[in-house]
Amino acid sequence: MENEVNTAVQPIDDERLKVAIRSGLERGKRQFVPRRRKRLSLGIAAALICLLVATAGAAKVSPAFAEALQRIPSLGIFLKLINEDTALLSSIDQDLLQPVGQTVEKEGKRLTVEALIADDRRLVIFYSTNMSGGYDGGLRFDLYDEHGKSLGGALTTDHVFTDNAQLQSSGNEDYIDLLLDHGEKMPSKVRFLALQNGTTLEFDLVIDLDRFAGMMRNYEINQTIEIDGQKLHVVRARQSPLILELIVRKDKTNTKEIPGFVNLRLQDDSGRSWSSGITFIGDEMSLFFKNGYFQKPKRLTLLADGLFMFQKGQKVVVDLEKNIMLEAPDDRLSLGTVDPRFQRDGDDFRTFAITLTGLDEIDQLRRGGNILSYNFIDANGAVHPRAEVNGTFTTSLSRQDNETSMYYPILRKKYPQPLTFTVMDYPGYVLQPIELELIP
């Protein structure tokens, strides 16, 4: 990879930031319509410091970034929220941010899509709203392509409620972050729905695919990790503006399922680290890091403390009429009581709970896994799906101390008991340091 400039950051005073913004606007004046001059706020100054950290400490703001600061008044708050996401910050600096400015209001509820940024696998939508976020607020989001197909992937929300946000904010500005499933491509049009207590606000968003066209690097890795007789083959890396993706394949001879790594991170030559998201298709997993196309380190190293793993072929057998669990991987799992907050009973389905206890600190690192399979077998050998709620298979969970409860909807039928589920995920791990040079 190309060499990266020195990442040491010197203190940047307010006057230098003002000069940087003016310089950026001047360099971009032939590209943009001039707008009214605005005084540099403390929020914008803090946001610029985040950018300067991400761009090697140079007191220089691109025309694209300077214009975005003027066009989107709340950009300073959004930049605080993403202040550790160097892929997003550097992509904004490289003119990948799309200002939107669409507002929809219904029944006193209002939401404005301020801007978005995308590449072929990741979509981030910045919004402001008068609706309360978080679990208690009941605000949720759905995304569909132009054909009405739901965009599958990992969706994160409610960033203002996370510990690392540290904002004096009411939560009116936030963003959603969608990482598409492996094999999916970003559509040119997205239907974005914000839903709260029966009210739906709808947006039709256009994704400018040309902004990131051709921004891709691929690297062949072809190295193997082996722990406790289980093997993972790290095949290749793929770098786009907003993510670095590693493709990892499970060895076909493995006797245990491997749902992930213990304390996985990516580290560059300066010591900066990125944590990972993960998705699966069959025996192939994709590891995602927020180290994007515009980061150019001299060296990248994959580090972990071990692997999560559990025995293949395990079953959970329950008798829901007698409310007993007849078979489980171990005695940490039992039938539980449904928390009223997660009671989703309807006319055609009801909810049952399972509870995991005795989770140690490492187990708790990934206790959000879905234990039970989507299909189950009744006592007569017939196969049934779990209930669909609002057109989807839904699993909810709650956490406290060293235990986790999961809630599963099931149709109101008189199934011959007991019911047998396949174990899809379960706590378990082997600790052994992993260090793999991806770009030596």
From TrEMBL:
DUF5643 domain: residues covered: 217-303
InterPro entries assigned to the protein according to its UniProt record, in alphabetical order: DUF4179 (IPR025436), DUF5643 (IPR040680)
Highest taxon listed in the record's lineage: Bacteria
Stretches assigned to the DUF4179 domain: 36-128
Keyword Calcium assigned: no
Key words of the record: Membrane, Transmembrane, Transmembrane helix
Transmembrane segments: 40-59
Protein name as catalogued: DUF4179 domain-containing protein
Species of provenance: Paenibacillus herberti
